[in-house]
Amino acid sequence: MAENTYDTIPYPTFPRLTTHPDRMAAVALLFGMEPAPVDRCRVLEIGCGSGGNLVPMAYALPQSSFLGIDLAASPIALARDDIRALGLANIEVEVRDLRDLGPEAGQFDYVIAHGVYSWVPEDARDRLVALCRQRLAPSGVALISYNLYPGRHVRQMLREMMLQHTRDDAPQQRVERARWFLEWLTKSSQARPSFRKLVEDDMAEMLAYTDGDLAHDDLSPDNYAPYFRDFMAHAASHGLQYLGDSSVFLMFDSRGLLKWLPYDRLEREQYTDYLYLRAFRHTLLCGQEVALRPWPGTDTMERLCFSAPGRIVDGLIEGGRGIRISNNQPSVEAVALAMGARYPLPVTFQELLSHVGGAEELRQMLYVFISTGFALCHAYRFPYPDAVSERPRASALARHQAERSLRITSVIHAIIEMDEFGRRLLLLLDGTRDRAALARDLALSPEEIATLLPDRLQSIAANGLLEA
User: Fold this and answer.
1) What is the pLDDT of residues 100-132, one digit of tens each?
2) Which residues pair with 108 in a beta bridge?
């Protein structure tokens, strides 16, 4: 058997909000489906690697069950170490070829295939799509991510250059020489300025990659990029239909740029890719027999939760994606700031209702918020303590991750970047120490006890790292 480069060059796996069942269920609700409850579902991740995405889900959703498969043994061994350390009984990970996963695995409410479709041979690509159809529950949702044209054209050009430059190299040497080539090209390019500007961002992004990112994303022998229309033709051939995209706002034409097109969701999505020159997609699919709404309506808002970093900046209300709106409507400002007070954690429709004149006003407002990307919508209100207790306890997951990293996973599956003080504090939050004990073990000065410790504890709570 040929050596698996995922065993010899580690590929970093980490929590990806776009792949969480919460995001998948929210889109399903928008289009009239009745998805399985996020906290009581079955999840399959194909290509789970070392479990950086799946293990935190399993920890945060103890009543749901999870299966991860991957062809590489070394990453699976790392995932199993984390599962044992956290004492998780609701997750299994297996060294397994997706082509061998049969009916014995059962059905799943959510199937995740991130970073697989574009990086496997054609027969495995076809089997992946077929597997999503076969293993989906009747109201199930599958997510497949993939490289995408037209935006991928620039990266594919650079990839071809790197492959030519490293054509005789072994995998690790190929990474090193590809990095040298990118640095050389960045400094030495003689292309006209307009063309150089086109490739500079891609070259800078690849130079910032880890060895694993570069080896497996851009130097992989398989690196397939379809147009959206071609991907959907492939999905349809296996009985799957387009449900939506994990980047919810991109499904909406909030500026009316596509109003000249006849209403055809797939055609509009293809032209959206042209507008944004999209290079990557997280496409959500369901069975063709599922009856979907042609378009989300405001009536679905009451079934969702919402999050946005609502705050006042330069006299305007700023939300997600840096979007700013005027604050000449008191109710809009009140709702945005109410979300901001809880951000990044979500707020329910009912919790926001007291800030407006009535339910219909709030429905319309939230619809605009999610269609522009000002706010995210959620199907699940992640549980978290409202305040810092006398003896605060960080999640076992956060403390386990803090033993080896400054990157911690929150209850909403987001990555929180800690500094060294924050990491040390997290490790002490095991529920046995009050503030005096924390201050003593951290060797804090009286001034730090009065200011730094309360602020950091509140920040840890606000980011969803504490448990009741």
Assistant:
1) 999 999 999 999 999 999 999 999 999 999 999
2) 136
